[in-house]
Specification:
By secondary structure, this protein is α/β, with parallel strands linked by helices. It has a single domain, classed as Cytidine Deaminase, domain 2 (3-Layer(aba) Sandwich). Helix content is 25%, strand content 20%. It contains four helices and five strands, in the order H-E-E-H-E-H-E-H-E. The chain has a five-stranded mixed sheet, sandwiched between helices. Helix 3 runs parallel beside helix 4. 35% of the residues are buried.
Length: 155
């Protein structure tokens, strides 16, 4: 099993943010667009050299669907009708080269399957590790995708 406790640096020695920190912050900004009452999640896809953004998304309704409010209200966990942030980011990513995914919370099992099937994702940086189902990270690791817990530094 790969080491999911690896911690990339948020700042360079000169105090500037690292590319990883910049993309994770961008994912958290996309999460602010979510209308879900349970969890606001954002995702960003980059080239593997971290030089270009090639996709982004947040959890919300499908194209043309009503995105006013959360379709999860009153339903059992996992019954939400919204697309997950990772799904949206991957659906709008047309880049076929090697990629890195940044997501504000660890991916669920279904999103992990989609990440693997998209192809080309080499690493997944995830912010919060509070998701109720830990099978997503294990699935990524079995597929040879490095999963790195990249939580914001505590003040």
């Amino acid at each position: 099993m790969m080491n999911t406790s690896k911690q990339a640096a948020w700042t360079r020695p000169d105090g500037r943010p690292t590319p990883e920190a910049t993309y994770m912050r961008l994912a958290f900004m996309w999460a602010e667009h979510s209308t879900c009452s349970r969890a606001q999640v954002g995702a960003v896809v980059t080239t593997d050299d971290l030089r270009r953004t090639v996709g982004h998304g947040y959890n919300g309704g499908g194209v043309g669907m009503n995105d006013n409010g959360c379709a999860h209200e009153g339903k059992v966990p996992g019954a939400c009708e919204h697309l997950h942030a990772e799904e949206n980011a991957l659906l709008f990513c047309n880049y076929e080269g090697p990629k890195v995914l940044f997501v504000t919370i660890e991916p669920c099992l279904m999103c992990a399957k989609r990440i693997v099937n998209k192809g080309g994702i080499r690493k997944v940086y995830y912010g919060e590790d509070a998701y109720r189902d830990k099978r997503g990270i294990a699935y990524l690791e079995r597929a040879g995708i490095e999963a790195i817990h990249f939580a914001p530094p505590t003040p």
